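Deliverable D5.2: sample structural annotation.
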Amino acid sequence: MLKDYRDWLESELKLLGNASDQAYSLGQANMAKRAIEKLDEEIAQNLYVAFDRPHARRLLTAIEATDQRTTSVPPEFAELRSAITAALVEADENPAL
């Protein structure tokens, strides 16, 4: 998904580069360059794993079931549970994501 977005930004940048030298085109090209740089920084620092919503909910349920069967889940699972929960809340608040 992020690769597709980056590829789209690159194609927009090329398209804008071929446009006339209007100030608007140059401004849009600069915005596209900054977006690519920001995306590259984000991708370099973080690992993104794409799960559809039903799969994320199943993972969350599995972690919670493990927590109920044992005295506690490992801290890494607790972090994963928090990250999945936050992502699901954000997705529910912003259905376009």
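Annotation notes: Residues 23-45 form the longest helix (23 residues). Residues 76 and 82 are 10 Å apart (CA to CA).
The annotation will be released with the project's public dataset once the embargo ends.
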